[in-house]
Write a structure and sequence with these properties.
The structure is a single chain. This protein is an alpha+beta fold. Among the domains are: 59 residues, Ribosomal Protein L24e, Chain: T (Roll), CATH 2.30.170; 99 residues, Alpha-Beta Plaits (2-Layer Sandwich); 86 residues, Calcium-transporting ATPase, cytoplasmic transduction domain A, CATH 2.70.150; 155 residues, Rossmann fold (3-Layer(aba) Sandwich); 109 residues, Calcium-transporting ATPase, cytoplasmic domain N (3-Layer(aba) Sandwich). The strands form 6 sheets. It has a 7-stranded mixed sheet, sandwiched between helices. α9 crosses α10, α17 runs parallel beside α28 and α18 crosses α27. The radius of gyration is 35 Å and the shape is flat. Keywords: ATP-binding, Cell membrane, Ion transport, Magnesium, Membrane, Metal-binding, Nucleotide-binding, Phosphoprotein, Translocase, Transmembrane, Transmembrane helix, Transport. Belongs to the cation transport ATPase (P-type) (TC 3.A.3) family. Type IB subfamily.
């Protein structure tokens, strides 16, 4: 089978699509690829095919999608991602686009050459690394939709890139660090060239005027680095001193300012040695370590930024005048919208017409679509896979579930776990000890070799700077948090990872946590002359008037009866059942106690209810809240790991005993109130237990808030999720095991980081104090130590 000349995919048998390119007829797999190739050839860009290093993207873009690009010309849509510059006849607009389909540098060349021919386009730059394109154009001569169509005509798709607030701050911070790094790097190289000339005086005689000249040049080159590049260290030191704390920025600033002032003194008065090379290299290496730390911290915010880009920009709103395309952010609560098959939902809402399978992987991590029907809740960012839906908007985009996830993610690392607090305290004590040692070293050298006292002390301050120690915990926790978010566990408080490694008991609610929370009808047994189908029809007719979960189990059960029965004079009996008349006959359906059944006629297992008429028992129905498929494996895995397992439930029925027996838990505590659950957990805590609580309901909220660490099911109540320390986005209990495994790895990584950073400082301190370690070597060693810690921590994000 031939491969498509444009995209490289197999050409279907019998395909007649082809195009002559440079005298050779090349096969095409579809009309889209043929149209793209024709556009490329007509524009005189055939050299694209000569220089590309990878196939192009499949060139199918349906006419409806091309027409929809005109929505991007609306002012209310553009205001989020288009910036204006210039005035009057020089008015210009600028946009950053995300480009799909870029495979190599030839793609960027092709796009730039093709779009440059558009009248009114003034600037275009395509970045193949970030898959983004920056464009400037004249809005009076060229529409944004025409630019996007220009991408589509040659087989690429471009969309406005909307920068999340956090991402914008990150980009600003990265820019700042890059400028500081560039200045420090270039400056240190120039200063090192001068230093080579100064060091030559050790081997050959150099005239004094040349020595003075090189010192002054070094001073001029070092001053911008000290003022601009090193500014973050001064700001950090000043902040910590104002708060009465000692941070690593204090020791860094002392070392930098001391070395610079001493070197400047030596330059101005032409006496003593200068260490401008050590200063500039120190700043460069330290900034490099900070920059890598920034990259590691960025991992935790990528998930929320990616979520923000999953919501479509346009929506189809239905009103009295028909259907209209509007910006999704303009939707209000109560608006009715249409969502076609294959498109992404623009808002949270309830289905009012139609049913379809929705892919909710962006919320839960599960790739299998879920069937949604009239009355079901659906969420922005999920994908409608197979049928059109009409949805009534329930929340504005700012209050949607996706926005809540972003807010939770923003706060995931706000609370420092005990191990992080310990690291901060250790760093502060270490700095205090370091300053005392530095003072002692200076005193010793001042009386033995005064000319070396300052430089040896400087080497001590630089070499033992606790950068790696301060980075040991936050970089590891950040990487682990990003890993958990990507795998369907959203941390709301940072101490969860620490508790997971120390817990010796897992406490779980039953209904909605270990079970699905949906009562279903398991079996029907006829006890008189009526058939099972007839008994089920009578039961359904009565239960149609009730909203009890048991009633819903009958409504979802199909029946063989062609005609549904109609009930009258229906009366619910709270706590017992329901009664009414069907075709003049009085029926009751409810508990055995209400129907006064003898013990021999009741079921020994499961949740049983009974149907009776005025004189006899007609049928028995067995219902059950089915176990989650992963519940048994979870309990067994935790028991194998040495944790005690407890079911803590408000259910006092025999089903609680059946679930406990089937799962093999160590302890069952049933029939307890919300206060009783919290009291149980506090009693366990008094006995020395460290517990993890998993629940989903309003009655679990107090115990979730009071546990050492707690997880709420994504399908649980809002109160439970707000009380929990973490949320299982996929309602998948097996993710708890993954979280514990990752927590153990995180603890190991943090211990490795501590061991390395403390071991390095203990090794290098005597070398620096004895004068064997020059300041510039100390700076390089300190920065290398920080890089090792950051790199080790980033392994957790794999």
């Amino acid at each position: 089978m031939n491969a498509c000349f444009h995209c490289g995919e197999p050409v279907p048998a019998g395909s007649h699509y082809a195009l002559e390119i440079k005298g050779i007829v090349q096969p095409m797999c579809c009309p889209g690829c043929q149209a793209v190739a024709e556009t490329i050839m007509e524009c005189g860009l055939s050299s694209y095919y000569e220089h590309r290093t990878a196939p192009g993207i499949k060139g199918e873009l349906v006419p409806q999608e091309l027409a929809a690009l005109t929505h991007y010309d609306l002012t209310e849509v553009q205001q989020d991602f288009v910036t204006d510059s210039g005035t009057g006849s020089h008015r210009m607009r600028e946009i950053l686009l995300s480009v799909e389909g870029l495979t190599c540098a030839a793609c960027a060349w092709l796009i730039e050459r093709h779009l440059t021919g558009l009248a009114g386009l003034h600037y275009i730059n395509v970045n193949t690394t970030t898959h983004r394109a920056r464009i400037k154009w004249d809005p009076d001569r060229l529409a944004l939709s025409d630019i996007l169509k220009g991408f589509a005509k040659i087989g690429y798709r471009a969309y406005p890139f909307q920068t999340h607030t956090q991402e914008a701050l990150y980009a600003k911070e990265v820019r700042s660090y890059m400028f500081r790094l560039a200045l420090a790097g270039l400056g240190s190289m120039q200063v090192m060239m001068c230093a080579v000339a100064l060091y030559m005086d050790l081997f050959i005689s150099v005239e004094d005027e040349f020595m003075v000249y090189f010192k002054w040049i070094s001073l001029l080159l070092s001053t911008p680095i000290m003022i601009y590049s090193a500014q973050p260290f001064y700001v950090g030191a000043w902040r910590s001193l104002k708060q009465g704390h000692l941070s690593m920025d204090v020791s860094v600033s002392l070392a930098l300012i001391g070395a610079f002032v001493a070197s400047m003194w030596a330059t101005v008065f032409n006496t003593g040695e200068v260490y401008f090379d050590s200063i500039t290299m120190f700043v460069f290496f330290l900034l490099l370590g900070r920059f890598l730390e920034l990259r590691a911290r960025r991992k935790a915010s990528e998930s929320s930024s990616n979520l923000a880009r999953l919501v479509p920009i346009m929506a189809t709103r239905i009103d009295e005048d028909g259907e209209h395309e509007v910006a999704a952010k303009m939707l209000q609560v109560g608006d009715r919208i249409r969502v076609l098959a294959g498109t992404t939902l623009p808002a949270d809402g309830l289905i009012v017409e139609g049913q379809a399978s929705l892919n909710e992987s962006m919320l839960t991590g599960e790739q299998l679509p879920l069937l949604k029907q009239v009355g079901d809740s659906v969420y922005a960012g999920t994908i409608n896979t197979d049928a059109p839906l009409q949805i009534r908007v329930s929340h504005r985009i700012e209050e949607s579930r996706i926005a809540q996830i972003m807010r939770l993610q923003d706060h995931a690392l706000d609370d420092k776990p005990a191990i992080a607090q310990m690291a901060d305290q250790l760093s502060r004590h270490f700095i205090l000890v370091l300053l005392i040692i530095a003072a002692a070293v200076w005193t010793f050298w001042h009386f033995h070799q005064p000319e070396q006292a300052f430089w040896v002390t400087l080497a001590v301050l630089v070499a033992t700077c606790p950068c790696a120690l301060s980075l040991a915990t936050p970089t590891a926790l950040t990487s682990a948090t990003a890993n958990l978010t990507r795998n369907g566990i959203l941390l709301r408080r940072g101490h969860v990872l620490d508790v997971l490694t120390k817990a010796n008991r897992i406490v779980m609610d039953k209904t909605g946590t270990l079970t699905t929370g949906n009562i279903s009808l398991i079996s029907t047994t006829a006890l008189a002359e009526l058939s099972e189908a007839q008994c089920l029809s009578i039961a359904r007719a009565l239960e149609a008037y009730s909203e009890h979960p048991i009633a819903r189990a009958f409504r979802s059960k199909a029946t063989d009866e062609a005609v549904l029965l109609a009930a009258s004079e229906v009366t619910p009996v709270i706590g017992h059942g329901i009664q009414g008349k069907i075709a003049g006959q009085h029926y009751r359906i409810g508990s055995a106690r209400w129907l006064s059944l003898p013990a021999g006629q009741t079921a020994s297992q499961g949740l049983a209810i009974y149907l009776a008429d005025e004189s006899r028992l007609l049928a028995r129905f067995i219902l059950a809240d089915t176990l989650r498929p992963d519940a048994r494996a979870l309990i067994q895995a935790f028991k194998a790991a040495g944790l005690q397992t407890t079911i803590l439930t408000g259910d006092s029925s025999a089903q609680a005993d059946e679930v406990a027996r089937e799962l093999g838990v160590d302890e069952l505590v049933k029939g307890v109130s919300p206060d009783g659950k919290l009291a149980y957990l506090r009693a366990r805590e008094a006995q020395g237990d460290i517990s993890i609580m998993v629940g989903d309901g309003i009655n679990d909220a107090p115990v979730l808030a009071g546990a050492h660490a707690s997880f709420a099911m994504a399908g649980g109540t809002d109160l439970a999720k707000n009380s929990a320390d973490a949320i299982l986005l996929a309602d998948d209990l097996s993710r708890l095991l993954e979280a514990r495994t990752l927590a153990i790895r995180t603890r190991k990584i943090i211990q490795e980081n501590f061991a390395w950073s403390i071991g390095y400082n203990l090794l290098v301190l005597p070398l620096a104090a004895s004068g064997w370690l020059p300041p510039y070597v100390a700076a390089a060693g300190m920065s290398l130590s920080s890089l090792i810690v950051v790199t080790n921590s980033m392994r957790l994000n794999r």
